[in-house]
Amino acid sequence: MFKKFYILFLTVLLTGCFAKKKTTYSKTKTITVKSSKEKPTERITKKELAKNSKANQVIETAMTFTGVRYKFGGQTKKGMDCSGLIFVALSENDIAFPRVSYQMANQGKRIKIKEVQKGDLLFFKTSKRGKNINHVGLVVDVGNEVKFIHSTTSRGVIVSSLREGYWNSAFVKAQRIL
Fold it and tell me: Which residues contact 80 (CB under 8 A, 6 or more apart)?
């Protein structure tokens, strides 16, 4: 009796381990990002308003690519990589910037993660072999967590959170460019 139960238990356990995970994708992908509710103060300068406006324009441009598949070196709706997404979002808003993530990481002013604002860039090192930065994301929301848009090899252009274990451990630095 115990032997039959043990064999049945092992069969169920092994079958569960080797079952293929089914991935389904809907035709239309929707991502909702709540904007931070900033309370305006009387001391906001015209320069700061212009910066916030420019950051929002860049974010809006980047968000239009949500759901686009990943393509190494790509920078169109047919496919794009992480630095291509940032490059296009910035260039469509008249901001000249390098095309490659490790070169982007040398632009702007380095900031602490607690100082991050919408429009800042986050840089990551996702390769265990390489020593260079090889991934970049654009901050789209700062509230309880930092959310950023980027292009991943597995899911294309998506919004992720810096709280996610993978991205948190791969994080290298943040840069303010606007």
Answer: 65, 68, 70, 71, 74, 88, 151, 157
Q: Looking at the chain, which runs of residues are DSSP E strands?
A: 75-76, 79-80, 109-111, 121-124, 135-142, 146-152, 156-161, 171-176
Residues in the chain: 178
- pLDDT for 44 equals 55
The pLDDT score that the predictor gives to residue 14 is: 46
Assess whether 41 carries a catalytic annotation.
Answer: no
Q: How does pLDDT run across 56-84, given as a tens digit for each residue? A: 999 999 999 999 999 999 999 999 999 99
Tell me whether residue 82 is one of the annotated catalytic residues. yes
Pick out the chain residues at pLDDT < 70.
Answer: 1-51
- Residue of 118, 125, 147, 150 with catalytic role: 150
DSSP summary character for residue 8:
H
Radius of gyration of the chain (CA): 21
Contacts of 68 (CB under 8 A, 6+ apart): 77, 78, 79, 80, 151, 156, 157
If you search the block for the tokens 């790509």, which residue do you land on?
Answer: 74
163 vs 156: CA distance, rounded Å: 19
Instruction: Identify the active-site residue in 135, 137, 159, 160.
Output: 135
